[in-house]
Write a structure and sequence with these properties.
By secondary structure, the chain is of the alpha/beta class. It is built from 16 helices and ten strands. Helix content is 49%, strand content 13%. It has an eight-stranded mixed beta sheet with strand order 1-4-3-2-5-7-6-8, with helices on both faces. A two-stranded antiparallel sheet has the order 9-10. The radius of gyration is 23 Å and the shape is elongated.
Length: 413
């Protein structure tokens, strides 16, 4: 049945796509002996059987076959030469099902095995981008019972230009530093006031505003009298990560200030025709989030749109999120995507305790699928957005308690 594929992988040179296709067929058939043979043969042909094993599992998870991956983990066992890749993939499969602690334990063990394997057999590893993401995820996630110290509710940020939201049904808020504010705030405000409808108010926060940001803030406030613009400060060393998560640190404060539903956005969001309808659907839920189709655990919950109503449920949710964020901002490690992890972990705790938070995409018409509906082309080049992120500044130094990756700061003297 697989003769044609087998011939392709034995060809000179080997047919690379055939390895993956054959591996997927054997995995779906539950042919463990055949899988082990094809992974081993991939190594003999000059490639990485570990990388093939992980790619097979990634494809299965992406197509909704997480249980098949967990079955492979059980079938191969920890003694297999390919157990490192399989355990990492098994961790992702558990995360996909919000089996948080099982996913974290398996992921960290898989990362340990991958690092050992890379040291002994450098070729028999994962591509560096995949390995880097897995190590970062093993650092970012913490057990559900992990209880970081919290600093309480963040004080309200000083208002540079107070707007009037007294008649609004919901307050929409976004934050960015001076660079992001000057790059995206005008587009955000123009689209919002054209398409979000009069029942929604807009709040934009600037982290460490410079003179250019203050000048633009005044211009936007004059152009849009209902717009509220605030300033907040950050003196730490992780400014890009802080800017991504400051709206969650301030969420309880904003809910109290607004006294109405709050919808949190990325500052580089764009509002198009139909936005008023989407916002109305989001604010219909006491708590709302977006599930994505990514398989990396730190991207399973998108941070670009989160909605909440004032009350104990929102306070508990944002308390969990902000406690995690504050603790991580004080750690040395690759923090990019920590905002998604904070949301994912809080949702996992809610689900464990029988509480509810709605995935907005389950009720939105297909044409409004989030986060894509609010996404637009970046005005800043990729290099400008990445150069100061902590992931590029960290060096892995080993594994600590609970197999948590440990890092040093390359920029430290």
């Amino acid at each position: 049945m697989h003769d044609a594929l087998i011939a392709r992988v034995k060809a000179e040179p080997p047919d690379e796509p055939a390895f993956l296709e054959l591996g997927l067929r054997m995995a779906r058939d539950g042919n463990l002996a055949g899988l082990n043979e094809i992974f081993t043969y991939r190594n003999h042909r000059g490639g990485s059987g570990t990388a093939l094993a992980f790619e097979v599992c990634s494809q299965l998870i992406a197509s909704g076959q997480a249980e098949t991956v967990l079955g492979l983990c059980r079938g191969f066992g920890t003694a297999s030469a390919f157990s490192a890749a399989l355990r990492c993939a098994g961790g992702l499969a558990h995360f996909l099902r919000f089996e948080h602690d099982s996913g974290l334990a398996m992921l960290r063990d898989g990362v340990r095995l991958l690092l050992e394997l890379a040291a002994q057999h450098p070729r028999e590893s994962l591509p560096l981008p995949s390995l880097t993401k897995l190590v970062a995820a093993a650092f970012l996630f913490e057990p559900l019972e992990w209880t970081p110290a919290t600093g309480g509710i963040t004080p309200p940020p000083p208002l540079l230009h107070p707007g009037d939201w007294s008649a609004a049904a919901a307050l929409c808020a976004a934050f960015g530093d001076s660079l992001y504010f000057c790059t995206y705030a005008e587009r955000l405000a123009e689209g919002f006031y054209r398409h979000a409808g009069p029942e929604h108010a807009l709040f934009i926060g600037i982290v460490n505003p410079d003179d250019g940001a203050r000048q633009l803030a005044g211009e936007l406030a004059r152009r849009h009298p209902g717009l509220t613009i605030a300033a907040t400060g950050y003196a730490g060393t992780r400014l890009p990560e802080y800017c991504c998560s400051v709206r969650f640190l301030l969420a309880e404060t904003l809910l109290e200030m607004a006294g109405r539903p709050l919808i949190l956005f990325d500052i580089d969001s764009a509002f198009a025709p139909g936005s008023a309808e989407v916002l109305k659907m989001i604010r219909a839920f006491p708590l709302a989030h977006i599930r994505t189709r990514e398989i990396w655990p730190q991207l399973l919950v998108d941070a670009s749109v989160v909605g909440a109503h004032p009350g104990p449920a929102a306070n508990r949710f944002f308390g969990l999120v902000s406690g995690y964020v504050r603790a991580k901002l004080l750690e040395t490690g690759p923090l990019w995507t920590h905002d998604q992890v904070a949301l994912y972990r809080a949702i996992a705790i809610l689900r464990r305790d029988g509480d509810d938070i709605a995935n907005v995409n389950t009720v939105l018409p297909a044409r409004f699928h989030l986060p894509g509906f609010f996404k637009s082309a970046h005005a800043l080049p990729q290099t400008a957005r990445e150069k100061t992120r902590s992931n590029d500044l960290m060096a892995l130094t080993g594994l600590g308690p609970g197999l948590k990756p440990l890092f040093s700061d390359r920029g430290a003297s």
